[in-house]
Design a protein that fits this description.
The chain is mainly β. The protein is 11% helix and 39% strand. It is rod-shaped and about 110 Å long.
Length: 373
């Protein structure tokens, strides 16, 4: 089968179908023959003559670089012989064939539009303008275009769970609330990250202490550091200082909550609120209830279908925050007079006051004298 004819260049790399569709007509002088015209009729796979190119093609890759683009990378080595360029023909079902003119070495071609194409046919042809030589195919192959996978710089932990219990992701901190008594000395979590991102460390970890995870984005440079803490039998309402409510988060579902106990007595459900949150439940003590508690330390017992848990609370309301008494609130306070130190009587001090004291003492003594006589 004739695959090229040197009237211009060649029929082409993807020319099997094209060659079959063309009828070549050559006008020769009367009596002339093909031997006189000496056209080259290169057959695919023919033996290379001395001085012909001997080119090796290696490391061929078709890489997706965008949602609608790809690049081709390859290495060309060997001897170009009489070839002036090495023509790489890129053929697809959407646009047909187009060429890139190369030399020996490493090449990255593109980006090219993907369109609706799923695979490429590549072929390499040496070419020269010398009419004594004509190109022929030295290599070909079919390569799929890979699917697009976004390569972003995101390095996020999207979800984190231990033993099926999802954690709460707050920025770069993660809390996982487990039932009291859960063994977390060697647990392998389930982690979902941004597409293409990787996480270290991997495998089981000891969550009796905070574990640090480093997430590296698909771009290989963006990183984030996350700190994961597991909350089991450690929970507290904290300190209440006089305003607002307090709450604690526990590692069991709200549906399994039974009751709240203080000093052996069941706390009225109207004094607290139980709500389900991701990975557990939240118990909130109301402000009105907290105001009924004197300053001091308290230990609440939370009963659930999973067991009991003690949750401490400290009430610490300063006197300046206390509600004023009724006597102090009825008008302005009366000014307090200085005390003279005589009995339990409060005396006004000053010149006038001193004269009144002296006069009083004189009257008492005169009365005593009159009584004696």
């Amino acid at each position: 089968m004739i695959t090229s004819f040197p009237l211009r260049h060649r029929i082409g790399a993807c020319g099997a179908a094209l060659a079959a569709a063309l009828a070549l007509a050559v006008s020769l002088p009367v009596g002339a023959s093909f031997a006189e015209g000496d056209p080259s009729t290169d057959a695919v796979g023919g033996d290379a003559a001395v001085g012909d190119p001997t080119v090796a093609v290696s490391n061929v890759e078709v890489l997706r670089t965008g949602e609608d683009e790809y690049v081709i990378t390859l290495d060309l080595s060997g001897d170009m012989g009489w070839a002036e360029t090495l023509d790489l023909y890129i053929c697809d079902s959407d646009r047909g064939c187009f060429a890139r003119f190369l030399e020996l070495g490493h090449h990255e071609l593109g980006p090219f539009a993907v369109g609706g194409v799923t695979e490429l046919e590549l072929s390499l042809w040496p070419w020269t303008s010398d009419p004594d030589h004509e190109g022929y195919e030295v290599w070909s192959g079919v390569f799929p275009i890979p699917a697009w996978e976004p390569q972003t710089g995101s390095a996020d932990i999207i979800s984190f769970s231990i033993n099926g219990v999802p954690g709460l992701v707050y920025g770069e901190s993660i809390l996982v609330f487990l039932a009291p008594g859960a063994d977390v000395t060697s647990v392998e979590p389930t982690i979902t990250t941004s597409p293409g991102a990787t996480v270290t460390p991997t495998g089981p970890q000891n969550f009796t202490r905070t574990v640090e995870y480093i997430v590296t984005g698909a771009d290989g440079t963006t990183t984030k550091t996350y700190h994961v803490s597991v909350v089991g039998d450690v929970a507290e309402f904290g300190e209440w200082t006089g305003s607002g409510s307090v709450f604690t988060m526990l590692g069991f579902e709200a549906a399994s909550f039974v009751r709240l106990i203080l000093n052996g007595q069941t706390v009225d459900p109207g004094n607290y609120v139980v709500e389900g949150v991701l990975g557990g439940c939240e118990i909130e003590l109301t402000e009105a209830f907290l105001k009924s508690l004197p300053n001091g330390s308290y230990v609440f017992t939370v009963e659930s279908l999973n067991g009991s848990l003690e949750v401490p609370l400290v009430v610490n309301v300063s006197q300046t925050d206390a509600t004023p008494s009724s006597s102090a609130s009825s008008g302005a306070a009366k000014p307090k007079l200085p005390n003279t130190g005589i009995g339990d009587v409060t005396w006004p001090v000053g010149i006038g006051g001193l004269l009144l004291v002296v006069a009083g003492i004189a009257c008492v003594r005169r009365r005593q004298v009159l009584t004696r006589t």
